[in-house]
Amino acid sequence: MFDHPTTQAFKRKRLAEMNFKIPDHLHFVPMDFTKKFAEHKLIEEGFDTNKKTFFSLLGVTYYLTKEEVSSIINHLFTKVPQGSSIVFDYADENLFTEKGLSNRVENMRKMASAGGEEMQACCSYNEMEHLLEKAGLLIYEHLSPKSINDSFFSNRSDHLTAFETIHYIHAVKK
What we know:
Blueprint: E1 2-3, H1 5-17, E2 29-30, H2 39-44, E3 54-57, H3 66-78, E4 85-91, H4 104-114, H5 125-134, E5 137-143, H6 145-153, E6 166-173
Parallel strand pairs: 1-2, 3-4
Antiparallel strand pairs: 4-6, 5-6
């Protein structure tokens, strides 16, 4: 698991407080994605670039620039074999204009900012498709807010809905 050093330290502390046994195959690699990607840190912790790999980058892309997101994805997929994949969420081009149901999009941006983490990146589906294509990836599945609502929220009576600007992608290396 690689994460921002401060966030990772917090997560490890919470796991220890819960007496959670960390499996031997799980490695914690602190990494600041706004800095140069440190592939050697992953390899030092036992990451095998010859094995098909699944990456999860959930809740991260909004806080990075488009260039940083592109750089991370390019670095992750440069040496792993075909069939390796990634799941991540991203904010669409409406992130900075959409208020959302009960102002929740606007409030999310404000809370992130108050916490010292400005939301920076948002892009259209076409931009994301192009970014992934440049890294040698194909979109296997894309879940838009509408498709999430149709699949998971259509029969709810509590007014809970998908977040208006958040999309999920599962992409696979060609």
